[in-house]
Each structure stands twice: as C-alpha cells, then as structure tokens.
Amino acid sequence: MIPQEIIRRKRDGGTLHVTDIDAFIAALARDELAESQIGAFAMAVWYSGMTREETVALTLAMARSGEMLSWSGIDRPIADKHSTGGIGDNVSLMLAPIAAACGLSVPMISGRGLGHTGGTLDKLESIPGYGITPHASHFRKVVDEVGCAIIGQTGTLAPADGKLYAVRDVTSTVDSVPLITASILSKKLAAGLETLVLDVKIGNGAFMTSLEEAETLARSLVEVANGAGVKTSALITDMNQPLADAAGNVVELRNCLDFLRGGKVNTRLETVVLAFAAEMLTQAGIAKTLLEAEAKAHAALSSGKAAELFARMVQALGGPADLLDHPGKYLTAAPVQKPVLASSDGWLAACDARAIGMSVIDLGGGRRHPQDKIDHRVGFSDILPLGTEVNKGDRIATVHAAEEASAEKAAADLSAKYEIGDAAPVLPPVIVARI
C-alpha cells in the first residue's frame, strides 16, 4: 500500500476499493502515516466525496481498527445517542442517566470539541478525577451496575478514528458527510450498540447550515448504521442559537446539574432531551409510543432517579461522590464574570451561534491545535433565548473569563452577535424533522 497513491486517486475523484481503504486505515491505526498524509486524505475526501459503499467500508475499517465491545450477559437493551455538535449542546450529559433510569444500558463514547462546537469529554474533564478513558472491563462494569457511562475513545476502541478526528479539527475538513458518518458510526459500531438515535444540527451554529445538507447527513448516518445492523433514526434539530443557556465547559456542567435537579423546565433544552429519550425508549421496545416514552423519561427526571444515576456514574468513573450536592467544591469558577448588555430596546431576534462558539475558543475554552490545553472555567452563562424582550442595558448573558481584558472583549463581541428587532420574531421549532 502506497499512501500517496490512495490520496491521489481520491483527490482526482476516483473510487477507492475496499482493500485500499482497509490498508490506509490499518496504517493510520499503526501510526505509519505522517500527519500530512492524514490531512491530505481528509481533504481529498472533503473535495471528492465518497460513494455509499466507500463510506460503509471506511466506517467498518475504523470500527475494526481496535476492540469490538460485546455486552453479552447484560439483559437491558444497549442504546446510545450522538450529536453532530452545536453551541450549548450538553444533551448527552442528562440524556444518558434519564435513559438508564428508564431501563436502558447506555455505553456512550463521546468526543472532544470539534471546530467551533463544544465537546462532551471536555465538559466531563471539568470534574476532578473523572476518568474519560477507563479500561474496557471497568467501562463494562459501570454500564452494568449504573446503567450508563460516558467516556472517550480509549486506545483500543476505534483508534484510527481518534487519530483522524484530531487532524480533521485543524484542517477544515470537519464538514464532510462521509468523514462525519464514518467517525460517528465507527465508535458506535465498536461499542456494540443495538439501537442508536442521532441529533443532526441545522442552522448557523451547526456544520450543516441548510435543511438539505442536514437531511443528506442524516440519511447517510441512518442508512449506513441500519445497514450495519444497528437500528437507527435521526432527529434534525435547530442550532440557530445556543441550546442551553450556557456555552463552555464548567458552565455547561453547572447547567446539567441544574437540569437534573429540575431547574430547566419548559426550555428548548428540555424539549430536545425528552424527545431523544422518547426515541431511545421506543426503539428499544420499552415504550410503545413516543408519548408513553416521553412520560417515562419525564418521570425519571422529576423523581430524581436520573440525577441519582448521574451522581453514581461520576463516582464510579473516579469523580467526587457529592458533586450534585456541592458543585461549588469541585467546579472551578472563572475569576472574572461580567454581564453582557443589550445594545437597544426590543426583542432578541437572531444571533450568530457559530460566532458564539468561536468566542468561547477565544476565551480559551476550546482548541485551535490538537495539543492545546483548555481553560475549563471560561464561557458564557445566563444566555437569554431568542424571542426575549429586553431593554437597553439589560443583561443578556454573563461572560466567564480568566482576566478582565478578555472579559471586556468577549462581552462586547457577544453583544454585537445579537440582532435586536422591533417585534417578536417567528422562530423555527427546535425539532425540525425526523429521518
């Protein structure tokens, strides 16, 4: 196998044979490729695309590049959810324990921040001691005993994807349908799932900005996953504004804890979390209808059972046992907090959600290079949803920063990213479509 020949054929629009893809991914997993070759391959795929057969081959090759998990002996359905990434999208943190409280086993293998979007693992690493790469046997033990475990890719699970994922983040090749499909599903296939629900984001804060693009990706994911034997559906959800009222790492973790304690009722975030819980429960046969499933999920949340399981998961993976009771002891706050003020009277009509994600990176809450370290403390909280009426000088968010100068800049930048109109805007539904 000559890597540059495979790169050239794909660059020139050719179709790669399964054996070519297998050989390239095997070399990637063995660290036999230069980072420049990995980036060139990703860019060639970005430009030339892949057929469905190539995408299936790439997905399976990455899944088989490491250990394939088996859940034999666990009698609960094995289910999971994945999001294509957005701003303030911390759904997984609450969804996993809710689904587990309803009778599912949820072995969730998540990723870090990608491009302008935040990563579930970066948020969990805000918790002191939380181990995101446990040994496979411990991962299984936590899923068996607690019902859910949210971890990262270990060295043995889809290692080729982990290496490709890091390079895509810094080479502007994130928004490639075949690469997104293979990246997401390789981890899910390696995790031994029976069912899967996908959250495909659409809007100015998503990688897919149009409904057509989102539907293309959703269909690719659903068809490849179902073809590989995993029962899968997708919801297309709106990302024209932050989903939670926080964007960052510690601030989104605090938001998660508030949610689990019942503090985010009747929000867009609650709508999305309960909708995905309902999809998971109906796919697994725990509920016959989406309405029944949503009621079960709501009961798991309101009873406190989901919060209890989240706390048990954190402790089982090395975090503090009393995180929910005493978050201030463990979730370090940024030293500077500054209000973001409305620039005029009116209604919050629109915002640049992608730019908000980039502002978090500017504060130090994300990466520009794979080796960059994150300041977990920084970000935005108290973000008002679009459609809120404000007066000039009202607080529309709070900046959390490491120093006064960056707080001042971030506050001014965020204020400028909001359009304030004279009338209440007509906003799209948070759940746009189902595939």
UniProtKB/TrEMBL annotation:
This enzyme catalyses: thymidine + phosphate = 2-deoxy-alpha-D-ribose 1-phosphate + thymine
Q: Which residues cross the membrane?
A: none
Enzyme class, top EC level, equals transferase
Which Gene Ontology terms describe the biological processes this protein takes part in?
Answer: pyrimidine nucleobase metabolic process; thymidine metabolic process
Q: Does the keyword Cytoplasm apply?
A: no
Q: What is its EC number?
A: 2.4.2.4
Pfam families tied to this protein: Glycos_trans_3N (PF02885), Glycos_transf_3 (PF00591), PYNP_C (PF07831)
Q: What are the GO MF terms of this UniProt record?
A: 1,4-alpha-oligoglucan phosphorylase activity; thymidine phosphorylase activity
Q: Does the keyword Transferase apply?
A: yes
Cellular component GO terms, alphabetically? cytosol
Which key words tag this protein in UniProt?
Glycosyltransferase, Transferase
Which pathway, metabolic or otherwise, does it act in?
Pyrimidine metabolism; dTMP biosynthesis via salvage pathway; dTMP from thymine: step 1/2
- Gene3D superfamilies referenced in this protein's UniProt entry, alphabetically: Nucleoside phosphorylase/phosphoribosyltransferase catalytic domain (3.40.1030.10), Pyrimidine nucleoside phosphorylase-like, C-terminal domain (3.90.1170.30), Transferase, Pyrimidine Nucleoside Phosphorylase, Chain C (1.20.970.10)
All residue ranges annotated as the Pyrimidine nucleoside phosphorylase C-terminal domain in the record: 347-421
NCBIfam families the UniProt entry points to: PRK05820.1, T_phosphoryl, Y_phosphoryl
Task: Describe its partners and assembly state.
Answer: Homodimer.
Function of this protein? The enzymes which catalyze the reversible phosphorolysis of pyrimidine nucleosides are involved in the degradation of these compounds and in their utilization as carbon and energy sources, or in the rescue of pyrimidine bases for nucleotide synthesis.
Family assignment from sequence similarity: Belongs to the thymidine/pyrimidine-nucleoside phosphorylase family.
Q: What is this protein called?
A: Thymidine phosphorylase
Q: Which organism is it from?
A: Rhizobium leucaenae
